[in-house]
Write a structure and sequence with these properties.
Arc Repressor Mutant, subunit A; 5 helices; about 40% helix
């Protein structure tokens, strides 16, 4: 019996310079702002805090040198956030690159996908490894030997 073909996924992050990265989270935020017209609504839909969403936008605006969104304060129009043409172009370029990357990965790994990937065996959770030292196995235990910074052991 042949196993079903595996699905391939690629998670893309693009680093632009030392302090700027663009990934699926920031792009999803821009796209959700485009749909909802609101930063708070976009954050709610994406299950992130308003502060986190705001910081992501500030990071993009600061590092890219031009705004990806504009905001208007409430009032008669109700306020809101809107994606700029630059932000729209950035999101579209990211999605194009993402699609091309998935296509290239699928093409290069077709041999693996055709054979199917067996399900991985469940991995037991790792537990911390601790060593128990006692005087029988290490006479220095409890004597103060090996203490750092030259502190002497308390007299017995």
């Amino acid at each position: 019996m042949q196993t079903p073909a595996a699905a391939l996924g690629v998670r893309l992050r693009i680093d632009i310079g030392a302090d700027c990265s663009i990934g699926p989270g920031k792009i999803a935020l821009l796209e959700q702002i485009e749909r909802s017209g609101s930063l708070s609504e976009a954050a709610r839909v994406l299950k992130m805090s308003y502060r986190r969403a705001w910081l992501l936008l500030e990071d993009l605006n600061r590092t890219l040198g031009q705004p990806v969104t504009t905001a208007s304060v409430g009032g008669a129009g109700g306020g809101g956030a809107h994606i700029t043409p630059f932000g729209r172009q950035l999101a579209a370029a990211f999605r194009d690159i993402e699609t091309a990357t998935v296509g290239a990965a699928t093409q290069r790994l077709e041999w693996l996908l055709q054979g199917g990937v067996p399900a991985a065996a469940p991995v037991a959770p790792r537990r911390a490894v601790t060593r128990t030292l006692n005087r029988a196995s290490n006479p220095a235990v409890g004597t103060g030997a090996g203490k750092k910074r030259g502190r002497a052991a308390k007299p017995s």
